[in-house]
Design goal:
The chain contains three helices and no strands. With 52 residues, the protein is mainly alpha-helical.
């Protein structure tokens, strides 16, 4: 059971790192075009800070 916990925790950690990294690397306009409704309300630096 402990091994399953660590596997699930590792997969979730990778998902969070991938999502955060995407927000740091991509421009805010790409998120707006993708349909993220919250992105236009924040400046570009705030979106990058959220990702970091």
């Amino acid at each position: 059971m402990l091994i399953a916990y660590w596997i699930v925790a590792g997969v979730l950690a990778l998902a969070y790192v991938a999502a955060g990294g995407m927000k740091v690397v991509q421009p805010r306009e790409k998120f707006v075009a993708a349909g993220l409704t919250w992105a236009p309300d924040f400046p570009a630096l705030s979106v990058k800070a959220i990702g970091a």
